[in-house]
Amino acid sequence: MSIGLDNNNPGNIRLSATKYLGEVQLSQNKSFKQFKSMAWGYRAIFVLLHTYNIRYGLRNIERIINRYAPPTENDTERYISFVSYRSGIPRDKPIDTLSANDMIPIVTAISRMENGVEAVSEDVNAGWELFIKHKP
Fold it and tell me: pTM of this prediction?
C-alpha cells in the first residue's frame, strides 16, 4: 500500500501549520499528514484546491497542479497532462472549485497519480460531502 493510502491521505498533503478537520494530530509520519479516514483525506484535497482558487486565483488544472506538485518535487508537466486526461477537463479550462462535476474527477485523478491505484469512488464522494457540509 502507498504512504498516502496508509495515512488516509490520498493527496499526500505534507505536514504544515494548516490544520484540517479530520486530521490526526501528531502524525506518525515525519513528512505527511494523517487523517481519521479516507473521506477526511479527500475532503482535505478539496479544501486545499479550493484555497488555491480563493487565495491565489488558481482556476485551472495547469495552474493548480503547478502549485500542488511543483517541478522541484515532480514531473509537473506529466502530472498536469495526466490529471487533465483522466478528468476529461482541458488543462486551461476555468474550473469551479464548488462544483462536484469539476472537482470529483480532478481529485480522483490526483489520487490515482499520487497512489498508483484507482480511487474508491465512495471515499471520494464522501470526501466531497464532508467538504460541502464543512466548507472552509
Answer: 0.96
